[in-house]
Amino acid sequence: MKRFLGFVRKEFLHIFRDPLTMIIIFGIPAVQILLFGFVVSTDLKETKVAFLDLSKDEITRTLSGKICSSGFFELGADLTGYHEAEHVLRKNKIKAVIVFEKDFGRRLISDGTASVHIIADGSEPNMATLITSHISAIIADYNRELAGAGLQQVLLVQPEVRMFYNPTLKGQFMFVPGVITLIMLLICALMTSITITREKEFGTMEVLLVSPLRPAQIILGKVLPYFILSFVDVILILLLSWFVFELPVKGSLALLLAELMLYILMSLSLGILISTVAKNMQQAIFISLVGMMLPTVLLSGFIIPVESMPMPYQWVSKILPPAYFITIIKNIMIKGTGFLYVWKETLFLLVFTLAAIGLSIRNFKIRLQ
Amino acid sequence: MEPSRRACPEKQSFSHMQPVVQALGIGKSFGTTVALRDISFEVLPGEVFGFIGPDGAGKTTLFRIITTLLLPDAGEIQVMGFDVRRDYRGIRKNIGYMPGRFSLYMDLTVEENLRFYATVFGTTVEENYDLIRDIYSQIEPFKHRMAGKLSGGMKQKLALSCALIHKPSLLILDEPTTGVDAVSRAEFWEMLKKLKAHNITIVVSTPYMDEATRCDRVALIQNGRIFSVDTPDHITAGFSRPLLQVKSASKHLLMNALKKYPGTLSVWPFGEYVHLTLRDVLPEEPLPRFLERHGIRDATLMEAKPGIEDRFLELMSGAEPVPEYRKEVNDDQP
């Protein structure tokens, strides 16, 4: 035990003495949270939109009033024809044009359906997505109002939104689960695989292997500091998003922490697995970044929702553990659901972790070859 | 090749003792490259046993086999009575190993490195301080310095201290003097000598032939084969031919001329001299005249007492002027 603790102490010294490691562990998460947070939360305040109302009836006036009073949008201009739409968008002050079709109100009453066009500035895709989804939400809200008023059984205003992807932006804070998922993978998998291969590269592994330390002690000693630090990191991220962005954890905090620990464990075992395969640090970094980080960023639903990806990508995403974790953490943090809703994903993570640990033990070499 | 016990009369008493390392017919290949073939030797308790050979001779591979880090493809090897395949744990507990690249943590201080290795081997610095006092006291003034900022000689001393801290009965040092200045090298061998007093058997490798005389017995290794195992004196005595040392202001021209002389068996640079052995049957033209004809007038010829290096070069070349010599000539060029 004393041997083991001595080993862990050494690992902590390595971590605390290396500025780069410290930046990755504590700097990057904070910066990412703040960056994502401010970018997402401030931009949709009083964004200027223009209206092209070809109907000019009571219903269109109510709707545009609703959009402008939502706090997200502000009336930028009233247009008189389609030809002006492109012009105002080009000027860059107005981010979207909302078009009510001719006889909007009449059609809604008589046909039960009418359409709205939302033309967004596609040069800023994220912005455009946010705007269209917000406007859609407001219209959907209005639909419910109409239905509630019992005007007719099916009264529908149909927003026609042209988009390639459709983020389910129910809250503005989707980025927090994403950042946690990514950071944990970065710290646990990348850093552990680097720290183990570093010993191989510098020749210190030779002496460690010859020492009375058992392979399990070496691995655990490497992993324990990162486990502790990543957990501290997660707490920091949660506190930061709580204090700066007032993002509450809707579900059970205990469940969330338990799932986080499972995920950290999984990332660590992945890191160990990589280190048993990689011969040097470069290989470890390459496998971690290209083999894990990239698919995670692109395919786990962090940036692009899984549902709107082409099928082959969706299949890949099905075998990515981070994709499952994002589902779990979104459910607990934002939707506030309980364990019953995430047990399948949890089981997958558990099985994956056990498989990775089993493979690592099988792969760990008690000799150099 | 059997190690010759006849060769060390002062160690006669060891011949009935259990050897610390006993290797028989060790072979090891990496893919199609043969690293070691048919290696046999014995290391006796309390001796300093040296493996002398050029880079790529297979020294590191052999040491990794002794330390159980690699498994041999063929042959048997026992270390302190333990089999390297089955009882590797028993071996690992009892040896001190200093790999070719000093295995120190560059971001830890001198003292932290030492304490780390002490803890890992289940001991404390204080417990075995006596053993390392002579060595460690020299670097102790810098104990708060990062290991990465030490000079080569100091790194070497720290690495040796770390390898010794658990009082191993067998110390395995892979090229401990490579990349270290001449003064530190001499000091290092003095330290090893002192360690013998603590009954520690030492197996050491070096590419420097002049260090062979510091060992009790040496094994000459090249291209994965052991050529000879003997005491340095006996190895030197094996040099059979008359040896000449030749000197001239232009060593480079001299070397080239000597190589062209039909009676030359071998020639290699040796400090300010050139060492030369001649064939049994010499051509009609005597050497001084031959040299003069090649524009070397200041050459002095003397009979020389062969050193261990001469015997090594003779053994390794198979007494034939082989390309190795030409390589050394090239190395000598400005």
How would you describe the overall organization of this protein?
Chain A has about 375 residues and is of the alpha/beta class. Helix content of chain A is about 65%, strand content about 10%. Chain A folds into 2 domains: about 1-40 and about 170-365, no CATH class; about 45-160, abc type-2 transporter like domain (abc type-2 transporter like fold). In chain A, strands 2-1-3-4-5 form a 5-stranded mixed sheet, with helices on both faces. In chain A, helix 6 (about 125-150) links the parallel strand 4 (about 115-120) and strand 5. In chain A, helix 1 (about 1-15) packs across helix 9 (about 215-245) and helix 7 packs antiparallel against helix 13. Mean pLDDT of chain A is about 80; it is low at about 160-170. Chain B folds into 2 domains: about 10-235, 3-Layer(aba) Sandwich (Rossmann fold); about 245-330, Alpha-Beta Plaits, CATH 3.30.70. In chain B, about 30% of the residues lie in helices and about 25% in strands. Chain B contains 11 helices and 14 strands. In chain B, the strands form 3 sheets. In chain B, strands 6-7-8-3-9-10 form a 6-stranded mixed sheet, sandwiched between helices. In chain B, strands 2-1-4-5 form a 4-stranded antiparallel sheet, covered by helices on one side. The radius of gyration of chain B is 22 Å and the shape is globular. The chains are: A alpha/beta (about 375), B alpha/beta (about 325). The interface of A and B includes residues 2, 17, 212, 213 and 369 of A.
Q: What labels would you give this structure?
A:
heterodimer, A: 369 residues, alpha/beta, abc type-2 transporter like fold, 2 domains, five-stranded mixed β-sheet, 14 helices, 5 strands, 9% strand, elongated, B: 334 residues, Rossmann fold, Alpha-Beta Plaits, six-stranded mixed β-sheet, four-stranded antiparallel β-sheet, disordered N terminus, disordered C terminus
